[in-house]
Automatic annotation (TrEMBL):
Keyword terms: Electron transport, Membrane, Mitochondrion, Mitochondrion inner membrane, Respiratory chain, Transmembrane, Transmembrane helix, Transport
Primary location recorded for the protein, binned into one broad class: mitochondrion
UniProt-recorded name of the protein: NADH dehydrogenase [ubiquinone] 1 subunit C2
Stretches that traverse the bilayer: 38-57, 69-87
Lineage: Eukaryota, Metazoa, Ecdysozoa, Nematoda, Chromadorea
Topology versus the membrane: Single-pass membrane protein
Annotated GO CC locations: mitochondrial inner membrane
């Protein structure tokens, strides 16, 4: 089945959507963590988890919030550094994965010809046939 012309999206709109979704291409904003790079996301998450852990530990032990503050801040900075390192590792992993995929696509372009149609395939071409196999229809002998 051929898609109707009014359901087709222009190439400029598809490019805009892809640029908006792809990581690292949106302009960075301090108040929007979805625009942060992976190292900063990792550091922020670890800082949040560390601060909550410090607060809960002090509440559990019935200590004031400033109890053992400097050793805990040193431990928190180490934890934030670990989060930053894990974010860097994740970023490196995704960049390597994308480079490997792009290289494979460049070596075997004939395997990816069906992606050249920007409007995609119809839904009937995507799904596999489904044959119901229900227990109430099976024969037991």
């Amino acid at each position: 089945a051929i898609m109707a012309d009014n359901t087709r999206v222009s190439d400029a709109e598809i490019t805009r959507r892809e640029q908006y979704i792809r990581a690292g291409l949106r302009e960075r904003e301090v108040l929007d963590p979805f625009t942060w790079s992976y190292p900063f996301k990792g550091a922020a998450v670890m800082a949040g988890v560390g601060l909550v852990a410090m607060y809960v530990t002090n509440r559990w032990n019935k200590k004031p919030y400033y109890f053992a503050l400097f050793p805990r801040l040193a431990a928190l900075s180490a934890v934030v550094g670990i989060g930053y390192a894990l974010g860097t590792l994740r970023e490196h992993h995704y960049k390597t994965r994308d480079a490997v995929i792009e290289h494979y696509i460049n070596l075997h372009p004939e395997d990816f010809d069906h992606f050249k149609d920007r409007n995609g395939r119809s839904f009937s071409q995507i799904i596999l046939p489904w044959y119901p196999r229900r227990t109430q229809y099976t024969k037991h002998e």
